[in-house]
Amino acid sequence: MTSHLIRSRITSADPAHQAFVLLRTVFTVAPIAFGLDKFANLLADWPKYLAPWIDNLVPGSAQQAMYAVGVVEVLAGVVVAVAPRLGGWIVAAWLAGIIVDLLTGPGFYDVALRDFGLLVSAVALARLAVRYAPTPWIGSHR
């Protein structure tokens, strides 16, 4: 079955398509919003979430590291918006890195658990995108 035929059967009442749209929206908006906040620190004091060993590993201050994190997060959100099949995997990988940071840092285990749930949701987005947003350069077959 071609992707054109699959697309023609998709309706707004399709629960899986609704889930795809919700996940795509959240994983576009949230990384961009949180990425931009790395420059303002309005939502959180982001440098405190950086594990000391990572702070010692990267050049500059923890705040400067958060600027780099912010840029990556904004870019990840943009990739989800334009290519959710790829973007979902990028966000999942990024969340895996955040989880490692949180588990090896100053005791943000509850946040790491929440981020694991987000990681699983990002994988669900990538898998749903195979059907609802096939990327021609990756291939639309299953």
Give an overview of the whole structure.
There is one protein chain. By secondary structure, this protein is mainly alpha-helical. Helices cover 70% and strands 0% of the residues. It has helices at residues 3-8, 15-37, 52-57, 62-82, 84-103, 109-132. Helix 2 (15-37) packs across helix 6 (109-132) and helix 4 runs antiparallel to helix 5. The model has no long low-confidence stretch (mean pLDDT 90).
Our count of domains comes out at 1
Largest sheet: none
Shape: elongated
Helix-strand makeup class: mainly alpha
% residues in beta strands: under 5%
Distance between the termini: 10 Å
- Give the rounded overall mean pLDDT: 90
Number of beta strands: 0
Radius of gyration: 17 Å
How many DSSP helices?
A: 6
Low-confidence stretches: none
Q: How are the SSEs placed, and which strands pair?
A:
Layout: H1 3-8, H2 15-37, H3 52-57, H4 62-82, H5 84-103, H6 109-132
Helix pairs in contact: 2-4, 2-6, 4-5, 5-6
What can be said about this structure in brief?
The chain has 142 residues and is mainly α.
List its salient traits.
single chain, 142 residues, mainly alpha, 70% helix
